[in-house]
Sequence to fold (329 residues):
Amino acid sequence: MSSKSRSGTIVIFTFLLAIVAGIVAIGLGSVNIPISAILKTFFSSSSTDVHNTIIWDIRYPRVLLAMIIGANIAISGALLQAVMGNPLADPGLTGVTSGAAVCVLIIMLAAPEYTQFIPIAAFVGGLFAATIVYALAWRRNGISPITIILSGVAVNALCGGGIGYLSIIYSDRLPSAVQWLNGSLAAKGNNALMMVFPYAIVGWILSMFAIRKANIIRLGDQVASNLGENVHRIRILLSLIAVFLAAISVAAIGMIGFVGLVVPHMARLLVGSNYKYLLPMSMALGALVLLLADTGGRTLFTPMEIPAGILMAVIGAPYFLYLMRRKAF
Fold:
């Protein structure tokens, strides 16, 4: 089997695996539902009212939302890694997530009557943070990978201070935002799903059209220039798509870390660095990883529920240190 056929097969298999995992996840919880009953609910009207309520109103929206958010963040991380030439770049480490979180939190706590503008606010905040990191990391001979990390740490610290300040002055309203701050999908239903889904479709389409540009820029600035490409324009385009996908994810469920770092790296090990396969692989693997994190968080520690954002931090932080140890940057 050629390397292209092998990569394509792995991508298709991962998508199918994510779908199967989603069906299984719908059946897991305080009330376990067999797969046969789930399929009957999907394809027949003869299922029980209890199963209908649990599946359509509670678990199906949550499972699908977890998969969409995971795909969004993984694609965002893969694009940022191409833009910055750094396999350790992701929406969390580059400040995009925290920048979006500050703007969302301002609306949630200070102006809750304007919640319809949360996706726009998240995009503006994420874009502002990414612009600062990009500007600080830029050098005449290109982008310094280590400076990206240091700039991201600084921006994250600044945004963390803003989040802390908002938490203090609006402490009476903070309980409503605690789950969101921890990246929890608890109580996320069809409203959250419908808020994210249209934006996600747009972001996925744009990212697939950007595959060729991502492949060009990963060859290096000099090669891209020799091919007649405007390197700065490509970076801006890919950054906008990456920030857009990360921002709508933050707007929906809060701060989820390390998915954008861990998943593209895993995808690269499986299918290589060609974005024709890396991007859809990151999408499928991101959906699967966040789904597993959310399902594990709500089923392994009953009656307590651990937010997916906390589980991803517990898993992702050691993996990040492992990559640093290997000098992957």
In short: The longest strand covers residues 138-139.
